[in-house]
Design goal:
Elements lengths: L9 E4 L8 E4 L2 H29 L1
Parallel strand pairs: 1-2
C-alpha cells in the first residue's frame, strides 16, 4: 500500500511568499474578483427569492 505524503497547502498566499501551493494571492485582482462574484451571487439570490414569492401569490 502506498502512503501519501503531507501536503503543504495554503488558501491565501502572502505577496512576498515563494510557495506554489495556494488558491488565492493577496492582491487587487483577487479582491476585485471576490467582490464581483459576491455581487453576482447576491443578485441571483435576491432574484430567486423575489420570483419565488411571486409564484405564491
Amino acid at each position: 500500500m502506498e502512503t501519501q505524503g503531507k501536503e503543504d497547502f495554503e488558501v491565501v498566499k502572502e505577496k512576498n511568499d515563494k510557495k506554489k501551493n495556494y488558491i488565492f494571492k493577496k492582491d487587487n485582482v483577487t479582491k476585485t474578483g471576490f467582490y464581483i462574484i459576491a455581487v453576482i451571487l447576491i443578485i441571483l439570490i435576491t432574484a430567486t427569492i423575489y420570483y419565488g414569492l411571486q409564484t405564491l401569490e
